[in-house]
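RESIDUES AND SHAPES:
===
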Amino acid sequence: MNLYIQQRIFTWGDKFSIYDAAGNEKYYVEGEILTFGKKLHLYDLRGNEFAYIEQQLFTFLPKYVIYRSGEEFAEVVKEFTFFHPEYTVNGPGWSVHGDFFDHDYEVTDGDAVIASVSKEWFTLGDAYEISFGADVDEVAALSVVLVIDACIDAQRN
């Protein structure tokens, strides 16, 4: 299954629409504005919150916590490396590696690919294609992809 993330432009704060392969909007993401650290909410089209992502402040390296149904699901931590960024997803035990500056990376569980992310070029605003592995919790994988995007955005700014 594939999902497509499209950044909404000309808006206050972070806003994304997430589409299925047929082009139908499936989820949307809204960021809180005027807060310390990044805070993102992942909703379905009826306004039900599936995930809440919160940046942890006062840490040496970027760290984000993903909450589902009010419970901590995972913690995404940028690892200390010299040559290229690496991320660990504590909780499910996933890792994230690839070319983050070109938005071409994978979320893996050992040798199994959870999600592959690639940037769509020549679009208005940032757009990404996410391909999920078989029997993957797409909300969990999508939440991790949103965290990686937040880290890349923070590094660019």
